[in-house]
Amino acid sequence: MNVNQQPHMASPYGQPQSGYQGYQQTGYGNQHVPGGYPTPYAPYNGPASTYQPAPPTVSQASASAAYTPSAPSSFAPSSAVHSQPLPPDSVAQTAPQPFYGAPPTPPQPFPGAAPPFSAAGPAQPPAPPLGSQQSFSQAHPPSQPQFTSAPPPVSTASYGGPPPTTQASHPRAPPLTSQPSTFSGGPPPTSSPSQYPQPMPQQPPVSQPNPFHSGPPQPTTAAGFPPQGGPPLRVPHPGVQGPPMTSQGPPTSQTNHVAPPQPGMLPGPPPVNMAGPPIQVIEDDKLNKGNEPFVTGVRGQVPPLVTTKFQVKDQGNASPRFIRCTAYNMPCTSDMAKQSQVPLAAVIKPLATLPLDENGPYIVDHGESGPIRCNRCKAYMCPYMQFIEGGRRFQCGFCSCVTEVPPHYFQHLDHTGKRVDCYDRPELSMGSYEFLATVDYCKNNKIPQPPAFIFLIDVSYNAVKNGMVAIVCQELKTLLDYLPRENPNVASNIRVGFVTYNKVLHFYNVKASLAQPQMMVVSDVADMFVPLLDGFLVNVAESRVVIESLLDQIPDMFADTRETETVFGPVIQAGLEALKAADCAGKLFVFHSSLPIAEAPGKLKNREDKKLVGTDKEKSLFQAQVSFYSNLAKECVAQGCCVDLFLFPNQYVDVATLGVVPTSTGGSIYKYTYFQGQADQERFLNDLRKDVQKQMGFDAVMRVRTSTGIRPTDFFGSFYMSNTTDVELAGLDCDKTVTVEFKHDDKLSEETGALMQCAVLYTSCSGQRRLRVHNMAVNCCTQLADLYRNCETDTIINYFAKYAYRGVLNNPTKNVRDSLINQCAQILACYRKNCASPSSAGQLILPECMKLLPVYLNCVLKSDILHPGADISLDDRAYLRQLVSAMDVAESHAFFYPRLLPVHKLNVEGNALPVAVRDSEERLSKGGVYLLETGLNLFLWVGANAQQELLQNIFGAPAFSQIDPNMTSLPILDNPYSKRLREIIESFRAQRSRYMKLMVVKQEDKLELIFKHFLVEDKNNSGGASYVDFLCHMHKEIRQLLS
Questions:
Q1: Residue 516 carries which DSSP code?
Q2: Max CA-CA distance within the chain?
Q3: SS3 sequence of 605-641
Q4: Across the strands, what pairs with 61?
C-alpha cells in the first residue's frame, strides 16, 4: 500500500491519507533557493547609500570562493533526473567577514569585511556536489538552472464581455469593490482597481472554463480571476451565496459599492468571482515591488511578499529574510491593540541563508573587551543608540539609560550628532551583524571544542529489509567529505562517531591506528554508558580507511538479523553521554524504524485510537505518552546536543512522543512512511545531504529585547525555555524560525516607534563563539487606520497557524477553530466599524493589505491538524504539527496555499514562469497539464484531453493511457519543453529545505483524491468549507459583532 509504487488511495506520506511529506521553504518570489538564487541580480546602480561595502579584492574573493574538493566526488546519481551527483542545495550565505583595522573613509567601509563577491562578480570556481554550505561562503552551484532572471509576466487582464446570466435559482455572491487607500508617507497600495485600466487582448486568459461542470466559461483575467473593472461576474460555485465584498483602505472617495443590476439578473447586489484573489495580489506585488531593491533604512515600511523575488539593501533594519512582522505600525496603547485584535508578533529566522547578491552579516571583533552594551538592559550596540556629550556617552534606545563609552571605542561626532565613523562600523549602520564573543560568553568560561556529529543507525529487521541500513552506510562514505566548515579551503574540524542498535547498542572504535574497526556491545540499556572514550569520536581525514571499512561491514553484519524490537531512549542517552565525555556540543542523526517496545527507559505502547478524533480526548494524541523524553530533552539542551530524527515507519510509531527530543533541541524530523529503497531513496538521500551540510550553530541562546512599552510574552518554535526570557537551542540551523509575540506593558510613542533586538549567542561549526544581532524598528500609531494599512497577512497567518497548532495540545480542535474564526472576525469588524466609510451592512469590507486573510485563514482551518479527514494517520498529524511550529513565512505560505502552475502554457523561449492559477478544481482544464507545489510534494496533474504533442514532449508517451502513473521523475527527453519543465521542478526543489518527490496524477485516477486535497479553495471531503462558503460565514460573524 505504497504511494511510491501504485496509484492507490494512499497519501503522499505513503499511507492512505491526505497528507504531506517533508516541509519546505518557499521562495522569495517564485525562486529562492534555500541558499541562493539561480541567477544573481544585476548590480543595483540606483541612489547610492552613504554606506556601501567595498568591492572585494582578489585575495578576499579567493578566500571565500567555492570549495573544490581535491578528490573527485563519487556520488552516484540517484535517479535519472539528477545529472548532478548531489543536488544544487542552498548556497550558503556570504561568509561573515572579520572586521577590524583603522576606520577608512566612508565610501570604502569595512576594510577587512569586503563582501566575498560583488553582485556582478567574476565566474566562481565550481562548488562541490551539494552547493558547499561550508562557512556561509558563497558558492554558486554550477548546475543551477539559469532561468529565473526575469520576473513572471504581470497578470495583464484580458477582459471578456458581461458575464453569462445564469438561472435565478443560483444565488450569487454580492459585490467586491477594492478601494485604494490614501497612503500617508508609505508605499502605494499593492493592488487597486485603477491599475489595470486597459484591456490587453494579446494575452490569452490563463484560467480555463471548469471542465467538470457544464455552463459557459467565466470571463477572467490572465491570472485567473475576475477583471477589476467592467461588469461583475457570477460566482463560479453554483448554488452558493457569498457576502458582498469590498476591499478598501481608510475612507477615501469611494467607488460605488453596489452596481445596478445587469439585465437578466435578479435585482439586489451583483455577484463577484469571490473576494481577494490570491494570484492577483501576488502578481501585483511582483510588479510593484519586485523591480527595485528593498532598502531597510526607512522605519516601518512593509516588505514585499514572500512570493516576490527581491533584493535587500541593509541600511539599519534587519532584512525581511531574517525578521518579518505581523504589523509594521504598532498600536500605541494596549487598549487599541485589544480593540483591533491584530496579533503583534515577529517571525525570526536568525541564521537564514541569503541569496548570492546579498552580503551576509559582517563580523565585528572588539578584542578582549567584547561587544559594547547598555549598562542597564544589556542591549548590544546598534543604530538606535544615541551618542551624547561629544561622543563620550550613549543613551540606550531600548531603556534610555546613559552609559559611558569605553576609551578604545570613543569617536567624535559630526554636526548632525552622528559618530564620524558611523558608516565604517556595521553595528552603527546596519540592521544585522555578528560580534566575536569573548570567553565570558562561553560555557564555564572556557573556549568551546569543535562540535561532533554522531550517526545512530537502527539495524532491526525492518530497517535492514527495506534497504535503509545499506543506503545510509553507502551514502555516509561520500557525505563525510562535505561536513559543514567555515573556510572552504580547510577540512571540517567536526568529529564523527558511529553506533548501531536494535534491543542493544553497538559502539564502534574507528581509531586511525586500527587495522579494522572494533565493536563494543552495551546490553544494559537501563543504565547507558559509552564503553570507550578514545577512538569513538574521530577526525574523518585521519580515520577514513577504518570508517569506510566499518560502513562496508555494517549491512553484511546485520543482513540476517531476526531482531524486530528496538529501543529509543537509550540511543539518545548514548549520544548525549558521548558528547558529555568529549566535552563538546554536537548533533545526533538517528535513523529509526519502529515503535520502541523493547524493555528499556522510554519504552512506549501502541496508543493509536482513531475513535478519539473529534472528541475532547483528542488532545491526548498530540501529547507525549511518557515524561521520560521531556526530561531527556532538557539534558540534551544543557549539553548542546541537537537531535535530528529520520523515521522509516510501516505502522504507528508515536511521532508525538518520539518527536519531543528533536523539537525541544532545535532538531528536525523527517518521515518516510512505507520506505522502499528503490522508490524513496532519492528523497531520503537529498534530505540527508542537505541536513548534514547545512550551516548551523550549536549550543545557542536567543534573547529578544524591546524598547519600553512592549515586551516579548510568548514564543513558538523548536526550542527549550527554562525561564521566561531565554530561548535555548541545542542546535539552530538556517531553516529554523522562532516566532515571538509582543504585548504592551506601557504606552508607545509615535515619535520613537518601537524597537526590537534579537541576539543569538552560538558556537559556529568551527568552534568559534559568536553573537548574531538583528535589529528592527517599526512605527507606532494612534489611529487604527494606520495599523490596518501596514499589516502583513502572510506573517499573521504563520502566527495564527502556530498559535492554533499549539492550542490543540490542550483544547479540543473545534474550540481552536472557533477561536481563530472569532479573532479574525474581530479584526475585520473593528476595521469595518472604525476605518471603513459608511456603506450597506450587506457588504463585507476588507482592508487592502488583508484582502487575503479570509482565504488563507480558511486553509489553516481546513488543514489536517485542525480538520482531519478519515484517512490521515495520527502520526502524520503529529509530524505536521511539529513541522509547522518552526516554519518560516515563505514555507507556511506554500504549505497552506499551494502554487498551481498551468504547465501547458509554458513559454520555452523565455525565463518567466506561467502565471499561477487559483487552487480550485474548476481552474483545471481537461486539455491542460498542471504542476502543484505544496512545499512537501510536487504533483503533475494531466488532463484526459491533453494534446498528444504535449504528452510526447513531457512523458515520451503518445497517448494519455500510456503515461505511467507510478513514475517519480520525468524522463530526460531531448526537446526544449521537457528540458524547461525539468528545470522548473529542480528550481522549485532547490527553494525548499526538504526534497519534494514528484507524483504524476492522471485525471480520474485514484491518486486524484490526494491531489484534490490540496485544491484549498474547494470544499473538502472531511467537511472543510469552500472559500465562498467560508466568506459567507465570516461575513455573518462580522455582522453579528457589529450589531
A1: S
A2: 91
A3: CCCCCHHHCCCHHHHHHHCCCCCHHHHHHHHHHHHCE
A4: none
Q: Kindly state the helix (H) or strand (E) to which residue 386 belongs, with its residue range.
A: strand 386-388
Pull the grid cell for residue 887: 516554519
User: Could you tell me which of 650, 528, 541 has the C-alpha nearest to residue 578?
Assistant: 528
Say if residues 729 and 666 touch (Cβ distance below 8 Å): yes
CA 481/CA 483 separation, integer angstroms: 6
Instruction: Give the SS3 label for residue 997.
Output: strand
Residue 79 confidence (pLDDT) above 70: no
CA distances from 636 to 627, 718, 735 (A): 15, 13, 21
Residue for cell digits 541576539?
Answer: 759
Q: Angle at CA 199, nearest 5°, toward 196 and 202?
A: 120
Nearest to residue 428, comparing CAs of 400, 392, 402, 394? 394
Q: How confident is the model at residue 351 (pLDDT cuts 50, 70, 90)?
A: very high
What distance in Å separates the CA atoms of residue 767 and residue 490, rounded to the nearest whole number?
14
Measured CA to CA, the distance from residue 144 to residue 476 in angstroms comes to 24
Cell numbers found for residue 897: 496555499
As a whole number of angstroms, the distance between CA 658 and CA 595 comes to: 9
Q: State which amino acid sits at residue 968.
A: T
Type of residue found at 1039: R
Buried b (16+ CB within 10 A) or exposed e, 901-935: bbbbbbeeeebbbbbbbbbbbbbbbeebbbbbbbb
Cα pseudo-dihedral 283, 284, 286, 288, rounded to 10: 170
CA distance 1010 to 1025: 17
Distance CA 96, CA 208 (A): 49
AA identity, residue 19: G
Compute the distance between CA of residue 466 and CA of residue 451 in angstroms, rounded to an integer. Answer: 32
Alpha helices (H) in 354-493, listed in sequence order: 426-429, 461-465, 468-479
Q: Which helix (H) or strand (E) holds 732?
A: strand 727-733
What stretches of 885-1007 show up as alpha helix (H) in DSSP? 889-896, 948-955, 976-991
The pTM assigned to this predicted structure is 0.77
Residue 736, C-alpha cell as written in the block:
529554523
- Asked if 84 contacts 129 with a C-beta cutoff of 8 angstroms, the reply is yes
Q: C-alpha cell of 934?
A: 505544496
Give CA–CA dist 203/221, Å, rounded. 9
* 3-state SS class at 4: coil
Phi (first) and psi of residue 932, to 5 degrees: -110, 125
User: What are the residues whose beta carbons fall under 8 Å from the beta carbon of 206, sequence distance 6 or more?
Assistant: 155, 220, 222, 223, 224, 902, 905, 914, 915, 917
The DSSP bridge partners found for residue 760 are: 702, 772
Residue with cell 486553509: 859
Which residues sit opposite 761 in a β-bridge? 701, 771
Whether 374 contacts 109, CB under 8 Å: no
**Model confidence over 581-634: pLDDT tens digits?**
999 999 999 999 999 999 999 999 999 998 999 889 999 999 999 999 999 999
Can you tell me the distance from the alpha carbon of 261 to that of 268, in angstroms, rounded to the nearest whole number? 7
- DSSP count for the chain of H helices, then E strands: 22, 31
Q: What is the pLDDT of residues 695-753, one digit of tens each?
A: 999 999 999 999 999 999 999 999 999 999 999 999 999 999 999 999 999 999 999 99
Query: How many CA atoms are closer than 13 Å to the CA of 706, on its beta-carbon side?
Result: 22
Percent of the chain's residues with pLDDT above 70: 74
